[in-house]
Design a protein that fits this description.
Layout (H helix, E strand, L loop, with lengths): L5 E10 L2 E13 L6 H12 L1 H4 L8 E11 L6 E4 L17 E9 L8 E6 L6 E2 L2 E2 L4 H12 L3 E2 L6 E11 L2 E16 L4 E2 L10 E2 L1
Parallel strand pairs: 10-13
Antiparallel strand pairs: 1-2, 1-3, 2-10, 3-4, 5-6, 5-11, 5-12, 7-8, 9-10, 10-11
Length: 209
C-alpha cells in the first residue's frame, strides 16, 4: 500500500560509550492526524515499549533519546525526546559488545520474506547467552515479550489516535519504488541465536531499502 501518514521512529542507546540505533515505522491507522503526530508517537512508544525494552538491556546501557519524523507527508514537525541519564536498562550484568545484538523479526502480511523487517538491538547483558544462543528460561521470554509488543499498534496521547507498525519498502528487485509502499506488521518474533549487528543502518530497522 502507498505511504500515507507514516512516521519513522528512532531509538538511540549508549552501549560501551558508542551510540546504537534501531528504527521502526508507524502509520496512523485511526483518528485524524494530530497537530504534532511525532510528539504523540514518541509519548506512546515511551509509555508502552520502554517498560518491556529495559529488561533486555544491561544496566550499563542508557536510552539517550527517542526521535520521530514524518516520512509522508514530509512537512511534518519532528520531535525528539531526550532522556540523558534517566532511562537505564535493568539487566544485571555488563553489556555485550555493541556489535553483538538481539535480532527481532517483524513479519509482514506477505509471503515474500523480503517484506519482513529486522531490528538489531545492542546492549544485551553478557550473562544471558550460552554457546552462541540466548538463555531460554528467563531471557528469551523477556525478548519475546518485547518483540510481541513491537508488533502491536500504539495508542497515542491524542484521543482516538492509533499507530500501526509497518515495514516500508523502497526497492523492488533493486529498482526504486516511487513512491515507496508499506506492509502491515502482523507479528514479531526473536531469533534464539546471537546476531552480529551490521554497520549498514538500512538493514537494522523496520525499513526495507
Amino acid at each position: 500500500m502507498s505511504l500515507s501518514n507514516v512516521q519513522q521512529l528512532t531509538v538511540e542507546t549508549m552501549v560501551a560509550d558508542k551510540a546504537s540505533l534501531f528504527i521502526i515505522c508507524y502509520r496512523l491507522d485511526s483518528g485524524s492526524p494530530a497537530a504534532y503526530p511525532a510528539l504523540d508517537l514518541v509519548g506512546a512508544f515511551a509509555a508502552t515499549i520502554l517498560p518491556v525494552l529495559l529488561p533486555v538491556l544491561s544496566s550499563s546501557v542508557k536510552v539517550m533519546r527517542i526521535m520521530a519524523r514524518c516520512l509522508v507527508p514530509t512537512d511534518g514537525v519532528p520531535y525528539e525526546g531526550n532522556y540523558d541519564d534517566t532511562v537505564i536498562g535493568t539487566g544485571n550484568a555488563e553489556a555485550l559488545a555493541p556489535s553483538i545484538a538481539l535480532l527481532i523479526r517483524l513479519n509482514a502480511n506477505s509471503t515474500n520474506s523480503r517484506n519482513n523487517g529486522h531490528l538489531y538491538i545492542a546492549g544485551v547483558p553478557e550473562n544471558v547467552w550460552v554457546n552462541g544462543v540466548w538463555e531460554p528460561a528467563t531471557f528469551l521470554p523477556l525478548a519475546q515479550t518485547l518483540a510481541q509488543n513491537l508488533a502491536l499498534p500504539l495508542g497515542a496521547s491524542s484521543a482516538g489516535k492509533i499507530y500501526d507498525p509497518v515495514i516500508v519498502s523502497r526497492l523492488l528487485n533493486n529498482v526504486p519504488r516511487v513512491p515507496p509502499v508499506y506492509f502491515d506488521v502482523i507479528y514479531g518474533d526473536v531469533s534464539p541465536l546471537i546476531s552480529q549487528q551490521r554497520r549498514r543502518q538500512s538493514r537494522q530497522q523496520g525499513i526495507k531499502s
